[in-house]
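Input set for joint prediction.
Command: fold jointly, output tokens.
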Amino acid sequence: MVGPLNIQRSPQGQPVIFQAGDSQQGRELGAATADVIFTHAASIAQGQAFYQDVKSRAERLGRNPEQILVLPGAEIYVGDTDEQAREIERLYHHQDHSFELALKEFGRNFGWHDFSQYDLDAPFPQQSLESARSSFFTNAKRIADQAREKGFSLRQAVEFGRQLRPGAFVGTAQTVAAKMAEWFEARALDGFNIYIGHPGQFRRFTQEVVPLLQERGIYRSAYEGTTLRASLGLEIPRFGALEDGCL
Ligand SMILES: Cc1cc2nc3c(=O)[nH]c(=O)nc-3n(C[C@H](O)[C@H](O)[C@H](O)COP(=O)(O)O)c2cc1C
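tokens >
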């Protein structure tokens, strides 16, 4: 049978588009097409710079910058004291990033290139960068360039990558909530792409940190709607046909 498609548009208009990419082209693509942009930020200043960059690109492209959300990844560890939280961070980091695992994961930036084929103590295999062309290219190139500049072997590059870089969101529930608020209020982000790899830590975050964020009025106490788009505060995109009054 031939005829018009008799399927209704979803309640959120169209799926929410998440994008990530750090090159100029990646940022331009995000500014033009994304509803939400994943990124990483090592400091408030770095977060602010990315935030301002993609929001102003979006504005230049005629989009409302408020309708593009910037969500950096955040690794969170909650403890009874700030020192204990740092201890938990160290413990889990070493547990979760053994050399064997780190070597496997190292390939991710390079389009899941198999690094186990190389001699660990030979110079870093620069040819692996070819496999990253349609993957996390900006990250992969940074790793490969650094390995060349520092004369790293593959082992040294993996060791360097798996070093603990103490996170910004580690401490008591009060410390973590205050840090999250600080980044949000400094317009370094619109929200967080939270990484919590351990169930006990997830419980601590939801039971101890979230209520403090709610008290501060920067986290919801009830859902705004029934869709992901509504929860993110994103409008339903308007299409030509809708504006003409047709469905
Ligand atoms: C912080 C960050 C998170 C990413 N997350 C994902 C992801 O979840 N899934 C995915 O397929 N690619 C992910 N990517 C890869 C990007 O979508 C993109 O392919 C890659 O970064 C290459 O673009 P670039 O050179 O502009 O960075 C991520 C990239 C970054 C920088």
